[in-house]
User: Which sequence fits this backbone?
C-alpha cells in the first residue's frame, strides 16, 4: 500500500516538473523575440532590429512584386519614325491636330524651311511627341496611313522591378520615420534627440529623391515618346522592289527631271543676279571706253611728235 502511495507521489512530482520546464522554455522564447525587437544605435544612426517583422515585410514585398509583375507591369514605350510626304504643310497640320485630340503634347519641334534661292530644296521637320500609352498604337497607325514610312523602330523597356524596388525603399523609409518619431517623444538626452533628428533629415532627403524618380518614371510610363522625322519630297519612295524595265524608265524620267530642274535653277539664278551682272557689265564697258579713248589720244600725240 505504501509502495503504491510513493509511486503516486513521484508521478505527481514528475508531471509538475515537466509543466514547469515547458513554461520556462516558452518564456525564454518570448524573451528572445522581445530582445530581437530592440532599438540599437550604431555610428550615430538609430534603427530597429526586429527579425520577425523584417521577415514578414520581406515576404509581403515579394508577394507584391509577384502581383505587380503579373497584373500591372510598368512599361516605357518609345517609337522612332522617318516618313516622307508630298504635302508637307498638310501632314504637319494633321499630326499636330491628332496629337491634341489624343490629349498628348509636342515636347520639341524643329522645322527646316525651303531656301528662297534653291527651288528644289525640300523642307523637313523633327517632332518629339508625347502620347498617352493607351493611344500609342492608334497614333502610329494613323501617321503611317497619311505618310510614306521609310523607317520605324519600336522599343519597350520593362521597369516593373525597378519601380517596385523604389516603392519598397520609400515605404521602408516611411516606417522608419514613424518609429523614429515615437523614439523622439521618449528621448531623454540631448545626444539622442540630435541623433534621431539627424537621421530624420536623411530620411526626408532620401524620400524626396525616391519620389522624384517615381514621378519621372510615371510620366514615361503614362506618356509614350514618338520621335517623328518628316521629309518633304517631290516623289515618294516606292515600297516594293521594281523590275529592270521599271527601273530604267524611272531612271530616265528622273534624269530628264533633274535636267529640267537644273535649267530652272540656272534661269532663276540668272534672273536673281541680273542686276549685279548689269552693274558689272556697265563698269567693264565704261572701263573699255575710257581705255580706248586714252589709247587713241596717246596715238595722236605720238604721231605729232613723229611729224615734228
Assistant:
Amino acid at each position: 500500500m505504501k509502495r503504491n502511495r510513493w509511486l503516486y507521489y513521484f508521478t505527481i512530482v514528475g508531471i509538475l516538473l515537466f509543466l514547469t520546464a515547458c513554461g520556462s522554455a516558452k518564456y525564454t522564447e518570448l524573451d528572445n523575440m522581445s530582445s530581437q525587437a530592440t532599438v540599437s544605435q550604431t555610428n550615430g544612426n538609430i534603427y530597429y532590429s526586429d527579425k520577425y517583422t523584417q521577415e514578414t515585410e520581406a515576404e509581403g514585398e515579394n508577394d507584391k512584386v509577384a502581383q505587380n509583375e503579373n497584373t500591372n507591369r510598368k512599361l516605357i514605350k518609345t517609337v522612332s519614325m522617318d516618313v516622307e510626304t508630298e504635302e508637307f504643310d498638310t501632314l504637319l497640320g494633321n499630326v499636330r491636330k491628332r496629337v491634341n485630340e489624343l490629349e498628348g503634347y509636342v515636347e520639341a519641334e524643329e522645322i527646316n524651311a525651303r531656301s528662297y534661292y534653291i527651288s528644289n530644296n525640300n523642307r523637313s521637320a523633327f517632332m518629339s511627341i508625347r502620347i498617352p500609352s493607351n493611344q500609342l498604337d492608334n497614333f502610329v497607325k494613323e501617321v503611317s496611313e497619311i505618310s510614306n514610312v521609310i523607317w520605324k523602330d519600336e522599343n519597350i523597356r520593362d521597369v516593373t522591378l525597378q519601380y517596385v524596388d523604389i516603392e519598397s525603399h520609400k515605404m521602408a523609409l516611411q516606417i522608419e520615420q514613424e518609429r523614429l518619431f515615437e523614439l523622439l517623444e521618449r528621448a531623454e538626452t540631448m545626444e539622442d534627440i540630435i541623433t534621431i533628428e539627424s537621421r530624420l533629415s536623411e530620411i526626408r532627403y532620401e524620400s524626396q529623391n525616391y519620389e522624384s524618380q517615381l514621378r519621372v518614371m510615371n510620366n514615361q510610363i503614362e506618356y509614350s515618346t514618338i520621335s517623328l522625322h518628316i521629309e518633304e519630297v517631290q516623289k515618294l519612295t516606292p515600297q516594293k522592289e521594281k523590275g529592270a524595265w521599271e527601273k530604267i524608265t524611272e531612271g530616265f524620267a528622273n534624269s530628264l527631271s533633274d535636267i529640267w530642274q537644273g535649267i530652272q535653277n540656272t534661269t532663276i539664278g540668272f534672273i536673281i543676279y541680273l542686276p549685279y551682272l548689269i552693274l558689272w557689265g556697265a563698269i567693264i564697258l565704261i572701263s573699255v571706253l575710257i581705255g580706248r579713248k586714252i589709247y587713241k589720244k596717246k596715238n595722236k600725240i605720238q604721231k605729232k611728235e613723229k611729224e615734228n
In short: The CA atoms of residues 102 and 250 lie 40 Å apart.
